Amino acid sequence: MNDEIISIVVPVYNVEKYLKECIDSILNQTYVKLEIILVDDGSTDSSGKICDEYLKKDNRIKVFHKLNGGLSDARNYGIKHANGKYIQFTDSDDFLDKDMIKILYNNAKENNSDVSICSFYALKDGIKFTDATHKNKIFSRDEAIKASLLDKEIRNYAWNKLYKKSIFETIEYPKGKLFEDILTMPKIFLQSSCISLVDIPLYYYRQRNDSIIHKKTKESEFAYLDAVEEICNEIRKIDSKFESYCDYAIANSILNTYNDIAFNRMNELFNDDRIVKCYDTFVNIFNKYENFIINNSTNIKKMHYYYLLTDRERYLKDNEKLIQLYPEN
């Protein structure tokens, strides 16, 4: 089956602590016909030097050094230099199961998939966890968009997927924006006719407290809300069948933002005008789509919804009780 080149794009920025483990996991893949593109995005630590060291070790590796432009810019740069029929993105602080590429490739070939997806392990504080069901599934274009908006069977991460390279002829990651995956993944599905899921964890996603996404700030919270609203507005224009799913995604993003405010004790946001307006939006969406939202939510999510709707101020301020009620947050 190893008859087609697969390009793996690794954006690299100041990850000297994790980079060797990441690259080694790619070099040790059981699918060997790889083109490994390391894009050093202006690192100021030893990451660039580590890339150059690996360049000497394996002729499948290509290294590019560029001025810092952010994750999206580094991915776009890698895409432009990729020669494979398929492409995969690996974040440089993460690593892969040795069979990940082979399994995703075989899945893509067997189902003629434009996008082949696997589940993942989240790693935090030395503990790994996953919500994989080990149930495989094939999605049409519309089914994949709906699933990604529900954030259930398909998550909007770029890295647990193998793509036909041709998809990116008309798609780029948005430069200079946080939550670029949210803004891009539905566009990828719109260009796809078949999306297949192998629901076993093969990617190891490291949740670092010092990463940009996990540093909870007012700016990052609003960037998250903006990203969800922007992509939902684009999807609504395509077909009205996605209307309730888009509203669900917006309501879910507001709930997640309130969770972040509560659990991270971001007291300065409690009475922020925009947060108050978000709450009004949340109430309106919930009243309009209550049955749809409840039917598509986990039991814990349902408890969150009703807790927030019942007493907003208590939800925001009663952090200790929330942590006891919902320890996995």
What topology emerges from the helices and strands here?
Layout: E1 6-12, H1 19-27, E2 34-41, H2 47-55, E3 61-66, H3 71-80, E4 86-89, E5 95-96, H4 100-111, E6 115-124, E7 127-129, E8 137-139, H5 141-150, E9 161-164, H6 180-190, E10 195-206, H7 218-238, H8 243-263, H9 273-295, H10 299-310, H11 312-317, H12 319-325
Parallel strand pairs: 1-2, 1-4, 2-3, 6-10
Antiparallel strand pairs: 4-9, 5-10, 6-7, 6-9, 8-10
Protein architecture, described:
- Helix content is 46%, strand content 18%.
- It is α/β, with parallel strands linked by helices.
- It folds into 2 domains: 6-206, Spore Coat Polysaccharide Biosynthesis Protein SpsA, Chain A; 218-325, no CATH class.
Compact summary:
With 329 residues, this protein is of the alpha/beta class. The chain has helices spanning 19-27, 47-55, 71-80, 100-111, 141-150, 180-190, 218-238, 243-263, 273-295, 299-310, 312-317, 319-325; strands at 6-12, 34-41, 61-66, 86-89, 95-96, 115-124, 127-129, 137-139, 161-164, 195-206. The chain has two domains: 6-206, Spore Coat Polysaccharide Biosynthesis Protein SpsA, Chain A (Alpha-Beta Complex), CATH 3.90.550; 218-325, no CATH class.
